Amino acid sequence: KFTDGKEFEDLIQGLLCRRIKLSEQFLRFPVVKIAGHWHSANNRRLYCVKQYQERLRKLGGDPDEVVEVCIVEKGSVTKQVAKIIKQKYSTKDRHEITIR
């Protein structure tokens, strides 16, 4: 479930039946590039988009639709992105970050 109480399946079905578009603002993921890889703290929404793509592929649709992201620049790291860094890297690998 999402924090607003809605089920993941509601979002996935909304995407499949085109009631919800991938271009919706709430699906614009903030991402940060760490050690050459892109990461997002929006794991639940990202999971739903991946499920949508997998199901669309099975139905014979084009799963290569564009998902907009918001690239977080160095020096403007949010608490969410800081959480990603702390989860993904051990203490010796962590990067110095600034939280505003």
Could you list the spans in which at least 5 consecutive residues all have pLDDT below 50? 90-100
Q: Helix/strand/pairing class, anyone?
A: alpha+beta
Q: Over all CA atoms, what is the radius of gyration?
A: 15 Å
As a percent range, the share of strand residues is 5-15%
Coarse morphology: globular
What multimeric state do the chains show? single chain
Record the strand order, biggest sheet: 2-1-3
Order of helices and strands: HEEHEH
Distance N terminus to C terminus?
A: 28 Å
For the residues shown, what is the average pLDDT?
76
| Number of separate strands | 3
Helix content: 25-40%
| Largest sheet properties | 3 strands, mixed
| Tally of alpha and pi helices | 3
Commentary on this structure:
The structure is a single chain. By secondary structure, this protein is of the alpha+beta class. The chain is built from 3 helices and 3 strands. It has a 3-stranded mixed beta sheet. Helix 1 crosses helix 2. The longest helix has 16 residues, at 43-58. The protein is globular.
